[in-house]
Amino acid sequence: MKIELVSPFHYTYAPMLLGGILKDEGFDVEISNTLTRKSAEIILLSLYSTLHLIDKDIKNFIQKNKGKEIIVGGPISTCPEMVLEELPVDTVVVGEGEETILDILNDGISEDIKGVAFLEDGDVIKTPPKPVSNIDRPIPLIPDDIRNENIRGANVYIETHRGCIGNCGFCQVPRYFGRKIRSRSIENILEEVKAFKEKGCNRIAISGGTESLYGFDKKINNPALIELLQGISEIMGKKGVSAPDLRVDYINDEVLDAIRDYTIGWVFFGIESGSDRILKRMRKGVTVEKCFQGVEMAKEHGLNVAACFIVGYPGEEEEDFEETKNFMEEAMLHDFFVSIAEPIPKTPLAEEVLSMDTDENTVFKKHEGKYRVYGLTEAEARFFDLSLCGETNKFFSRIVDQNLFEIYLNAARKEGDDTRKITELLFKHKSSC
Fold first, then answer.
1. Is the residue at 134 inside a domain?
2. Checking phi first, is residue 237 left (phi over 0); if not, alpha (psi -120 to 50) or beta?
3. Residues 122 and 159 reside in one and the same domain
4. Less packed terminus of the chain by CB within 10 Å, N or C?
5. Looking at the structure, do residues 328 and 395 belong to the same domain, yes or no?
6. Residue from 266, 342, 351 nearest 305 by CA
């Protein structure tokens, strides 16, 4: 029985992880990122974006492979009813899929298997997820061309732990993996890093949500993370390690020194907003003052600081947006990322968006301000305006020439279009999502 793992467009970590487990169990398994007709009898399709459900290339791929058993998994599985209604596939693996996939391959689909959803006589049959207790695992199935992958500057994001103690309303991690932290052993992670290095990876980013939660304890004294960073750096070299995602409220001097000494020297904070009112609505659990403190603390340790911001969050008023621009101006970040609030299924943000009329939603509401000549929505205009603000207020600022202006204008339009498509899809499946 031949199995093909398909990770559309990019090699993402989850199918590589699953491929390693299946190979270790003796299955004949391959991995690809191309949407062509496959020779395998079973296709495991890993979907990581809600937009995948309406992607024409993915729909065509499923049609090309009609008659084969196609099993879908990934973050999109939080709303399996929507997947089954949008895509003609056999099964959706709900939640963490390692053990569930083995059960399916060994015993076939049935209500006795935890973590599955499938159609039976037109009705959706869904069983409760099956969380994995021990997340140490065999070496992933690493593609031979992994060195060509580039995801925010890294060839791969490896998982160090699962779960998040936070409760951000826009984030899927605590809903998907739970709020209890489950960390892999350092030995297991380093063995995996060596394998990626041997396959040609030049840079590895460590992930798992917020990496400072690896080996987490309530004193925020984390020698496990420091030892891990040192170990990865000894294998990859300092320039080959990135530790991208941190919360401002879970850092300390030792962790920041380790990031400076054992990685490329960047930290990425999820600031999201410069308004305390919106941070509260987002359930971030931090204040603007705490965000400023985190940025300054990281700079004091010689780190470059980037931050993520979200615009168009439900309830965001013009005053809130201006406060976010003020934060950018005062923080003098080394880099930044802006996004429009995306309602990921089964998150509090999605629930809030579904409770609103579209004419109240800034993703649909026409912008009547200084950028109205460009035909933007209010959320798109805020994305565009904040991006320009970020460039001119960087630690090393850039002049916004016509080329950069057009890049951000097009990015704003695409971000708005994608978010509208996702919102409309959720409204279409409102009863289940």
1. no
2. left
3. no
4. N
5. yes
6. 266
- DSSP 8-state code for residue 151: B
Are 298 and 322 in a shared domain?
yes
Cα-Cα-Cα-Cα torsion 180, 185, 191, 195, nearest 10 degrees, comes to 0
Fill in the DSSP letter of residue 377. B
Instruction: Determine contact, residues 247/256, Cβ cutoff 8 Å.
Output: no
Structural domain boundaries enclosing 361: 269-433
Q: How far is CA 207 from CA 2, 80, 112, 229, 340, in A?
A: 30, 25, 33, 12, 22
Tell me the pTM. Answer: 0.93
Question: Which tens digit of pLDDT belongs to each residue from 103-136?
Answer: 999 999 999 999 999 999 889 999 999 888 789 9
Distance CA 114, CA 95 (A): 10
CATH of the domain at 45: 3.40.50.280
Alpha helix locations (H) across 263-376? Answer: 276-282, 288-300, 318-331, 348-354
Q: pLDDT digits over 229-252, tens only? A: 999 999 999 999 998 788 898 889
- Residue 216, burial from CB neighbour count under 10 angstroms (0-12, 13-18, 19+): buried
In this structure, the answer to whether residues 323 and 416 fall within a common structural domain is: yes
Provide the CATH number for the domain around residue 178.
Answer: 3.30.750.210
70 & 105 share domain: yes
pLDDT band per the 50, 70, 90 thresholds, residue 208 = low
Q: How far is CA 241 from the centre of its chain?
A: 19
Termini Cα distance of the chain: 35
β-partners of residue 29 are 3
Of 105, 106, 82, 86, the residue nearest 94 (C-alpha): 82
Same domain, 301 and 358: yes
CA nearest neighbour of 363 among 348, 341, 384, 385: 341
Query: Which residue type sits at 18?
Result: L
**pLDDT digits 0-9 by tens, 254-286:** 999 999 999 999 999 999 999 999 999 999 999
Of the residues 264, 289, 317, the one at which a domain ends: 264
Higher-pLDDT residue of 250, 145: 145
Answer yes or no: is 132 within a domain: no
Burial 118-139 (b: 16+ CB within 10 A, else e): bbeeeeebbbebbbbeebebbb
